[in-house]
Amino acid sequence: MQLYTYYRSTSSYRVRIALALKGLDYQALPVNLIAASGGEHRQAPYLALNPQGRVPALRTDDGQLLIQSPAIIEYLDERYPQVPLLSKDLVTRAHERGVAALIGCDVHPLHNVSVLNKLRQLGHDETQVAEWIAHWISQGLAAVEQLIGDAGYCFGDEPGMADVYLIPQLYAAQRFNIALNAYPRISRVAGLAATHPAFIKAHPANQPDTP
Known about the structure:
The protein is of the alpha+beta class and about 210 residues long. The chain contains nine helices and four strands; from the N terminus they run E-H-E-H-E-E-H-H-H-H-H-H-H. Helix 4 (about 90-105) packs antiparallel against helix 6 (about 125-145) and helix 7 (about 160-175) packs across helix 8. The longest helix has 22 residues, at about 125-145. The mean pLDDT is about 95.
């Protein structure tokens, strides 16, 4: 498999975690989102692969190109079920998917670089942009804090779908100087993930395109 990725992209980060948790080998193909030419994701060669011009994208073993991290992660979980990311219990699965969607659909898109650049184009200064980021990330994490369990990872002793989404969001929170001390459950999960080999392998600091 080949993963088109960018080290600091939280959506790429979550796919890397899923791949690492399942012990799957892949070739990382870095896509520079901040290249002087305007970003490799906006250039014709990458747009020919993914017309949306975003990362991640995954080329499967049989040559199919998949886009959008939720679709990629669900594919990986169904194609390689031996290390499941979702609980066998249907209600718990729904809770796991709920936290993943909260982060992936409601929080992350609002601090995506394209959104932030649009705010700047509309005349908002950097203080206002920072306030926007802090508001939406903090609101999302406050909800997650109430939704996850009191022991282990988000929903059990082993990491799963919710953790795959949460940990990259925490990386983004730290990038934007958002404190996590108000979220003890989330901080517990972060501490566990910090020592887990799959999360370590997937971390932005350990990617081939890290500056």
